[in-house]
Every structure is written in C-alpha cells, then in structure tokens.
Amino acid sequence: MGLFGEKISKEEKQAQEIAKLVSKYHLDSLDPEDLDTVKQIAADLAGNGLISLGVSLSGKAEDVAKITYLSALVRQNWLIINQLSRISKLLEK
What we know:
It is a single chain. The chain is mainly α. It contains 4 helices and no strands. The longest helix has about 30 residues, at about 60-90.
C-alpha cells in the first residue's frame, strides 16, 4: 500500500462510478442488457462533469441555467428508465 492508499485502475474507478449511479437512481433491478446501456450512457456523461464545472465557474447565468435544466432532464430520464423496467417486468409476469 502506498502513501496515499491503493492506486485504483481506470476500469475499477469507472466500475465504482457506475455502481454509484445505479445505486443513486435505484437501477439495481435492470436487466443485464439494460445495465450495459446504462454503463455506456454513464461513460458518455462522465466527460460532461468538467464542462459543467467550467461553465458554472464562468458565472454566465444563462449557461448555468442550461446546465441545470439538462441535469434535471438526465435525472428524469434515469427515473423513466427505472419505471419502464419495472413495468416491463410486471407485464412479463
């Protein structure tokens, strides 16, 4: 173990981030195929964190509002994905 703890590989870090995302948005019950799609979406969204940080630091109110609205839409989409998965499972029964 190093001075600052174990060094985590890029893949392990990405897996941890995806696990946090799945837990945060209650996507635990998704089918494996859908979970793969969630992983791809999470990877696409990962780069946007730095962009939104830069925009929020720039202080332009319009840009900050856009980022906020887009973030809300992303959260709503996760909720819709979760609900559609539950409906699909109920219909299969």
